[in-house]
UniProtKB/TrEMBL annotation:
Protein name, UniProt field: N-acetyltransferase domain-containing protein
Organism, as annotated: Humisphaera borealis
Length: 135
């Protein structure tokens, strides 16, 4: 259990892949899903659960999931695990829809050590940006 902004989160890691999930009162609230490709790691999805999907009783306790630093904590744990396992590059796609949902998303990735570039063959067809972190 980890306390973040006075809330008690549990973190579950699936040992056979790079999926990391934070739960609050038994419900997943944030997750990072990754696929290893040799010494590279594709960040398939990084998601904070939308407030509309959270029970009202839990929202009364939390207020809102965004802005509670849970996404930052999940991403940092994901990155630490990747570093510990010798991953040299982490990459993923950011879509325009992602940016519309979180206007600071590209800045957030930059603050966490990612470079924001133009999409390439590694990216989703509808990607607006590629994020990449190299070690």
């Amino acid at each position: 259990m980890t306390i973040i902004n006075e809330l008690a989160f549990d973190f579950d890691v699936e040992e056979d892949d790079f999926n990391l999930e934070a739960t609050l009162d038994g419900m997943w609230v944030c997750r990072a899903l990754g696929t290893r490709e040799g010494d590279r790691l594709r960040l398939e999805d990084m998601q904070v659960r939308p407030d509309v999907e959270v029970p009202k009783a839990l929202l009364k306790q939390v207020g809102t999931l965004r802005g509670n630093k849970i996404g930052t904590e999940v991403l940092r744990r994901f990155l630490r695990r990747a570093d510990a396992e010798g991953v040299r590059e982490i990459f993923g796609s950011v879509t325009q829809k992602d940016i519309e949902e979180n206007r600071d998303l590209l800045g957030w990735y930059r603050r966490e050590g990612f470079e924001v570039t133009v999409p390439d063959g590694d990216c989703l067809d509808h990607a607006g940006h590629k994020i990449v972190r190299r070690r």
